[in-house]
Amino acid sequence: MNGVKLGLETKWFAKADEQIRRRRYIAAELVYMRQQFNTVHNFTDMPWPDDNSYADSISVKRYSVGLNFKLGFKIRFGHFIIDTGGGLGLRYVNSQDSNRINPDAEQANYHHPNVWDAFKKEGKRVGVALPLAFRIGYTF
């Protein structure tokens, strides 16, 4: 697997005093990710996956762009900083498969019906992102 992930985040803090040990913030984050990897998926030529399914080794090229909004807080312990937060966002994904045995076959799903894997399938789609962050840092 190879790829790149770039992110740009800006934070707005509740108070401007640097001496406060714990500070809350809101943040906006823009994320771009590009991946290329090989994997194995199950495919079927029939509408019923149990009748005629097979495993196929494929190449996947995927890129995504997301916009997230987060709430968090930063705690200072001397020179150490702990930064944690979470939020909600939107993510656009474009995924393309290649090197399939049969390009017209559909991807078969053999997992629990409550597991949502729409971002693993080929195609373009928009979905919800749930970003979480936990960072430990040191200031000089």
Describe the structure.
The chain has no helices and seven strands. It has one domain. Helix content is 0%, strand content 68%. By secondary structure, the protein is mainly β. Strands 1, 2, 3, 4, 5, 6 and 7 form a seven-stranded antiparallel sheet that branches. It has strands spanning 2-13, 22-44, 53-77, 80-98, 106-107, 123-129, 132-138. It is elongated.
Mean pLDDT: 84
Give the N-terminus to C-terminus distance in angstroms: 35 Å
- Overall number of strands: 7
Taken as a percent bin, the fraction of beta residues is: over 45%
The topology string of helices and strands comes to: EEEEEEE
How many helical elements? 0
List the helices and strands and how they pair.
Elements: E1 2-13, E2 22-44, E3 53-77, E4 80-98, E5 106-107, E6 123-129, E7 132-138
Give a quick rundown of the structure.
With 140 residues, this protein is mainly β. The protein has strands spanning 2-13, 22-44, 53-77, 80-98, 106-107, 123-129, 132-138.
List keywords for this structure.
mainly beta, 0% helix
